[in-house]
Amino acid sequence: MSEILSSPLLAVVVPCYKEEAVLHETHIRLSLLFDRLITDGTIAPESYILYVNDGSTDRTWPIIRELHATTRYARGLNLAGNVGHQNALLAGLTTVKERCDIAISIDADLQDDINVIPDMIAAYREGNDIVYGVRRERKTDTLFKRTTALGFYRLMQLMGVKSVYNHADYRLMSRRALQHLCRFRERNLFLRGLVPLIGYRTANVYYNRDKRFAGESKYPLRKMLNFAVDGITSFSVKPVRMIFWMGCIFILIALGVTAWTLYSYCLHNTVPGWASLIISIWLVGGVVLVSLGIVGEYIGKIYIEVKDRPRYNEEELLM
User: Fold this and answer.
1) Do residue 190 and residue 297 come from a single domain?
2) For the segment 168-186, what is each residue's pLDDT rounded down to a tens digit?
3) Is the residue at 148 inside a domain?
4) Same-domain check for residues 219 and 298
5) CB atoms within 10 A of CB 7
6) Which is it for strands 202-207 and 130-135: parallel, antiparallel or unpaired?
7) Is 148 exposed, middle or buried (0-12, 13-18, 19+ CB in 10 A)?
8) For residue 17, is pLDDT > 60?
């Protein structure tokens, strides 16, 4: 178990992409929370907030620089381009892993309830290295989003991926959990699946999610679908195995069709060429699918192992 400190140094990591509409309000609310936690002795006075600019094209980075220059807690990391939410979040966690005792990741849109952060820290003090922020319900979501989210989590379970239901990327991690996370070498990141693989003691803190304070969601349907596909393909080769078993089923069907075709042929209930055509279609189709499944099994394992491209490139760090 990691060493539990009475007043741990907290780093809150906030990935930002075109968040100029919410950044000032986000920092005000987080700063007020920090003031209270420091006064209570819950966290160390050196605690800070790291805003990670993920290649925003609006005023997000100038605002972060302004907050760093004029306020107490703001720090900034500017990435050289847009690398996506998961890579930006990991960049922030990698930056703070040697500069804090615990880190909390949270989105900049003010939908996750920051008032449960003291509960997260309390759970950490009880010996938990990872504390998940879990939504109690999805009343603020549309029916379509609630249905697809439920389907996504069930599909992930079916594919054998460890995940926490109704948990996004709002979580607390101890320093040793962060260090272990950074040892994972995946480039096609799905942190919601990676963090449970760390294996340290965990706890859940439940909260109600608010509506977005300002601005627009950075996860439209297209990105949500891509995110779901990345999550499945990064952690499971079951879709490839499904193709293999589908091919086996096709071969069994082909054997049945072959028997029926030969029976029809013997009774002279066929036209010339029909029997060979039907048998060929089913048999060849089954063999092709089985072959694809076998080859895909190996390609899937190679794919998981060899992704070794840089996740991000730092342009400027304000600490």
Assistant:
1) no
2) 889 999 999 999 998 887 7
3) yes
4) no
5) 17
6) parallel
7) middle
8) yes
Selected residue with higher pLDDT from 313 and 231: 313
Contacts with 214 (C-beta within 8 Å, 6 or more apart), sequence order = 21, 22, 25
Structure tokens at 316: 């400027």
Max CA pair span of the chain: 93
Query: What percentage of residues in the chain have a pLDDT greater than 70?
Result: 73
Residue 272: exposed, middle, or buried by beta-carbon count in 10 A (0-12, 13-18, 19+)?
exposed
Which of the two residues, 24 and 142, has the higher pLDDT score? 24
**pLDDT of the residue at 302:** 74
> Do the Cβ atoms of 229 and 188 come closer than 8 Å?
no
Q: Indicate whether 203 and 286 sit together in one domain.
A: no
Q: Which domain holds residue 272?
A: 238-306
The last residue of a domain, from among 236, 267, 291: 236
Give pLDDT tens digits for 93-140: 999 999 999 999 999 988 889 999 999 999 999 999 999 998 887 666
Length of the chain: 319
Domain CATH code at residue 104: 3.90.550.10
Strands (E), the chain: 10-16, 48-53, 74-79, 102-105, 130-135, 167-174, 202-207, 314-318
Return the pLDDT at 249: 78
pLDDT at 80 over 70: yes
Choose one of 220, 236, 252: the last residue of a domain: 236
- What does pLDDT average to over the chain? 81
Give 252's contacts (C-beta < 8 A, 6+ positions apart). 286
- CA 48, CA 229: separation in Å to the nearest integer? 34
Residue 154 lies inside a defined structural domain of this protein: yes
Q: In this structure, is residue 181 part of a structural domain?
A: yes
Query: Cβ(62)–Cβ(31) under 8 Å?
Result: no
Considering the domain boundaries, does residue 314 fall inside one?
A: no
